[in-house]
């Protein structure tokens, strides 16, 4: 028997139900204590059509799984059994996903590049299905799964109402006028019912609708999507014109003949657009080596091979050594030119910056230890050397730039593990002696208060933002100018509050230098309000504090008062309006 009792199916012990659909219920399951938790889709089908559809789903999904189809959720186990009266009992076992696209839309909303990356993965999965003659017909956010919150490698699931192209009319499982599919995503010809006019282009239509949903968080009727894309936060991004022209105008089209006809064509278009955006050609600037460095780092991190990661970080270290050797001789001859030389050195750290962005974007915690060693290496590169303090401070600017870049990307991408590591990790460094010291990254005044820029911390942050706002950099970051400022300010704000937490505990002795106060409340209040209103977001953003949302909000006014009193110098900073009195 497949099921010996209500809590066991085959070799699998059922846990709580995590989903319910037209084709069956989905449960958490495991083979026993200590074994991985999986997702088990269970069906007891008595009606002939439902029985046949389940058999078809198992067969085609299993075929894709055996082929190792990319971006298709694999099948771990499956079984079918005939019951009395011709009914079928069976199950499909798949890896337990962390979340689906519907649950992740808060992360994708307004983020053009990450939406394109996800759509590219889904299109690859649909392309694999099309290659074996399967039209999915049920592409919707709930059927796009992710194994972790980084939203890397989306996986297509649920082939319960798929259509086989080569099936003759007599053997089809969809009646001539039967409508199947997700209401807001199905193509017009699919919406009318029947199968005669449903081809691969129906899935292409749904993929276009999926992109609009990711960008806007809205379900839109038929082809009327343009109004949703005219919101201020999207309309100001010039990349949207390219997306309208090359993707949406060729997918969300009523006439199937006017659409992109195959998934491969859509994949090619998406790859071209992403390549152009990352090089700066799809936005306000020309191409830059930062795009290729970021792409190379992304490829390394996707493989998650320790040797490859270490090799990539070694390349970053070699890059710093060679560029700093050239800039150092110039700085020693012209120490008063140290601000310009620091800027030039930052612009030459293509591998280091590209790796930092990729690590933070994809929440690649496996790379954090090696990246931390790179930052420590750069920060101590001038130790035990005599010379002008302005010259010795230049590498500190570089180390601070990598730290700050990682923080703003982690926050903007909701890469909570990396943000937690950044705000909880102590960095080893040396200053004026051979004895190592250990400080939190946000505590290191030499990152943000360097002699190279005259001990004027806002100048350092202005320099960092100037570099990151360059067209080629902002294209790689996938952030508009306003998003960059918001993320930068919000990241500094969390750093300052964490510094206050540690200072009160007595575990920090060095004064924090930051300048988020120059951005006024418009840059900080949205972060506080989201923490206040969004429990899931708050759990991630407040992970470094090890406090509940309620505890953190209760202590915030006191900590901001501490920051205002201890972390600012009126000569160097404008506190602006951020203070406990503004949080009432």
Notes on the protein architecture:
With 584 residues, the chain is an alpha+beta fold. Helices cover 50% and strands 10% of the residues. It contains 23 helices and 13 strands. It has helices spanning 48-66, 101-108, 112-131, 188-191, 200-216, 232-235, 239-246, 263-279, 289-303, 306-333, 338-347, 350-361, 368-379, 389-392, 394-412, 416-424, 445-448, 457-468, 471-477, 481-505, 520-533, 535-541, 549-566; strands spanning 8-9, 12-21, 24-30, 38-45, 77-82, 88-95, 99-100, 134-135, 144-146, 155-156, 163-164, 426-429, 437-440. The strands form four sheets. A six-stranded antiparallel β-sheet has the order 1-2-3-4-6-5. The chain has a three-stranded antiparallel β-sheet with strand order 7-9-10. A hairpin with a 2-residue loop joins strand 2 (12-21) and strand 3. Helix 3 runs antiparallel to helix 8 (263-279), helix 9 packs across helix 12 (350-361) and helix 10 (306-333) packs parallel to helix 13. The radius of gyration is 27 Å and the shape is elongated. The protein starts with 7 loop residues before the first strand and ends in an 18-residue tail after the last helix. Residues 166-181, 283-287 and 577-584 have low confidence and may be disordered.
